[in-house]
Amino acid sequence: PDEQLDLDDGRWEDIHVVTGALKLFLRELPEPLVPFSHFDKTPLCPPSLAEIQDLCLRGQCIRDLVLSLPPAHHDTMKVLFRHLCRVVEHKEENRMSVQSVAIVFGPTLLRPASEEGNMAMHMVFQNQVVEHILNHYGYIFPD
Question: Which residue has the higher pLDDT, 21 or 71?
């Protein structure tokens, strides 16, 4: 059922509540923002990303991954990362550096269909992809 939320309600003033709600929404999607098929079949899939020593090539692979997303996923990711870039711009006040945002949002936005395999390698992969997108937003999402 459609729930009507009053965003003027005082409980939404705490940024942690809003961030938690956003993360929960993204985590509860039937498929993550980067669909399982893209996570599992990309040449970036762990451990491949770590094996790409050429940073330009690695960046091109991440851009290609984002560009290959279905339109709804791509457009949502563009808006979300534009917002996350603004969060990082205020890292002195909010203590949310690129690395912090990547740790918080990486596992929510990219995850394998199955939890089998090397979880530590998946976390490194998730964080690297999110960090790269944040650091190169204009290249990955040209207007």
Answer: 71
